[in-house]
């Protein structure tokens, strides 16, 4: 992140083929003291090029764009080791977009519906940079459960043997959408301890971020659809 007047500033890239959508997001984000729009892109190919040039902290990426769609663009970004610090948040028009689960599997840090409340968008941008919260918890939980339910029956993966019993417990709680603070309360530990467990689990499993840890929790069979309540 850049700094301005001694404060960290989150740099955001807007990738959407609709100029009015970009203008609306820009007006909202640029009005915040800790966020600045670093650039814009009208299609996926432009987005990848802009990310390589500008190195933003966060990309708000529309899933459906011409030339190169948001899903393919996300893969190019997350597959590039030089861009490992860039977080991609997918934007979708509908809550049950068919590509959402695949987008997170491909490396996106989360997703938002375009008609989300302004406060939720701002909270999401800050959260994904902090790396300690899943985006739009309510929507995220419903969507991941929906797509996990449609996927094949998972088998308990060998990757879980890399984890301690406490780390598997923490991973399961992350999988049902709990924040570090909620995990801490559930396990009666400090938020810092909960965050440390989450971080160690991600390192052991090679998860890029918390969103991918959720996907792994479902794919490994550690969490099953219907556990969300």
TrEMBL record:
CDD domains on file: LuxR_C_like, REC_NarL-like
Gene3D superfamilies per record: 3.40.50.2300
Any one Gene Ontology molecular-function term assigned to this protein's record: DNA binding
SMART domains: HTH_LUXR, REC
Residue positions where 4-aspartylphosphate is found in the record: 62
Keywords assigned by UniProt, alphabetized: DNA-binding, Phosphoprotein, Transcription, Transcription regulation
Domain HTH luxR-type: 156-221
Protein name stated in the entry: DNA-binding response regulator
């Amino acid at each position: 992140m850049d700094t301005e007047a001694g404060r960290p500033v989150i740099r955001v890239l807007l990738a959407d083929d609709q100029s009015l959508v970009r203008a609306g997001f820009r007006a909202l984000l640029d009005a915040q003291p800790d966020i600045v729009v670093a650039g814009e892109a009208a299609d996926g190919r432009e987005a990848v090029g802009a990310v390589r040039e500008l190195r933003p902290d966060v990309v708000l990426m529309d899933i459906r764009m011409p030339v190169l769609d948001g899903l393919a663009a996300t893969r190019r970004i997350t597959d590039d080791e030089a861009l490992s610090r860039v977080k991609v948040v997918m934007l979708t028009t509908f809550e049950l977009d068919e590509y959402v689960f695949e987008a997170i599997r491909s490396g996106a840090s989360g997703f938002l519906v375009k008609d989300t409340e302004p406060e939720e968008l701002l909270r999401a941008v800050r959260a994904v940079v902090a790396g300690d919260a899943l985006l739009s918890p309510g929507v995220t939980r419903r969507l991941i459960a929906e797509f996990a339910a449609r996927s094949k029956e998972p088998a308990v993966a060998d990757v879980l043997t890399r984890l301690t019993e406490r780390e598997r417990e923490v991973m399961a709680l992350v999988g049902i959408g709990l924040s570090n603070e909620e995990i801490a309360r559930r396990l009666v530990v400090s938020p810092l301890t909960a965050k440390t467990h989450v971080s160690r689990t991600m390192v052991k499993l090679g998860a890029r971020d918390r969103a991918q840890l959720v996907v792994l929790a479902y794919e490994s069979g550690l969490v099953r659809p219907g556990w969300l309540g």
